[in-house]
Amino acid sequence: MFVTFEGSEGVGKSTQLRLLKTYLEQTGQPAVYIREPGSTEISEQIRAVILDKANSAMEDMTEALLYAASRAQLVREVILPAIDEGKLIICDRYIDSSVAYQGYGRGLGAQTIKYINAYAIGNCMPDVTVFLDLPPKKNWRGDRQDDRIEQQSDEFFERVYKGYLAEIELSPSRFVCIKPEFDKNATSQKIISALRQRGAIR
C-alpha cells in the first residue's frame, strides 16, 4: 500500500514518521520510506532549490512546477517500481501538500495544482493519507525558520490548514485525521491503530 503523511508545519509529523518506522521495524514489516520533495538524486537537488532562503524571488508558479517536477521523478523512479513489487510505501508529504501550500497558501488555486500534477503523477494516488490535524495557532513550530517555506506568515499557514480541511471534505475515505496529543506515543498509537484498520499495516 501507498501511505502518505500530511500536515502543516510544527505538527510533529517527522516524529510520528520516526515512531511508525520503529514500530514497523520491530514487528518485521519492511517498508520503503521516502520524503517530498526528495528521495532521488534529482529530486533532492530540486528540493535544495525550493527551500533555499536565498531564492526569495522565486515565483509562486515556479515553486509549484518545481514540486511537480520533483514528484514526477520520484513517482517513476521509486514509487511505481515499489508498488509493482508489492511493497509498503511510507511517504512524508505528497500531492496534498502542493494543493494546500501552493493551491491555497499561495493562492494559485487547487484545480491549477491538480492539473499540473496530473502530468507528474498520472494515476499514482495514495491508498491512505494520515493528516495530523493541528491548527497553526496550536502547533509546536515555535520560531523556527529553517527554510524558505517556514519563513512564511501566520496567515499563509492558516490558508494552508484551511486548504487541507477543504480537500479532506472532497476525499474523506482516503484521509485518516489524527488529532496530535502532547504525548507523542499516544499519538503514535492512534496512527498505528488507524493504519491497522485500513489494512495498511498489521
Q: Number of domains in the coordinates?
A: 1
- Judging by the overall fold, what is the CATH architecture? 3-Layer(aba) Sandwich
Find the structural class using helix and strand composition.
alpha/beta
Q: Summarize the helix and strand pattern as letters.
A: EHEHHEHHEHEH
Helix content range of the residues, please? Answer: 40-55%
Number of helices: 7
Q: Any idea what the radius of gyration is?
A: 16 Å
Distance between the termini: 12 Å
Counting DSSP E segments of at least 2 residues, the number of strands comes to: 5
CATH class: Alpha Beta
Mean pLDDT: 96
CATH superfamily: P-loop containing nucleotide triphosphate hydrolases
Shape descriptor reads globular
Low-confidence stretches: none
Largest sheet, spatial ordering of strands: 2-3-1-4-5
Keywords:
7 helices, five-stranded parallel sheet, single chain
Word description of this protein:
There is one protein chain. By secondary structure, the protein is an alpha/beta fold. It has one domain (2-197): Rossmann fold, CATH 3.40.50.300. It is built from 7 helices and 5 strands, in the order E-H-E-H-H-E-H-H-E-H-E-H. It has helices at 13-26, 41-51, 60-84, 95-105, 110-121, 154-170, 184-197, and strands spanning 2-6, 31-35, 88-92, 128-132, 175-178. A 5-stranded parallel β-sheet has the order 2-3-1-4-5, with helices on both faces. The protein is globular, with a radius of gyration of 16 Å. The model has no long low-confidence stretch (mean pLDDT 96).
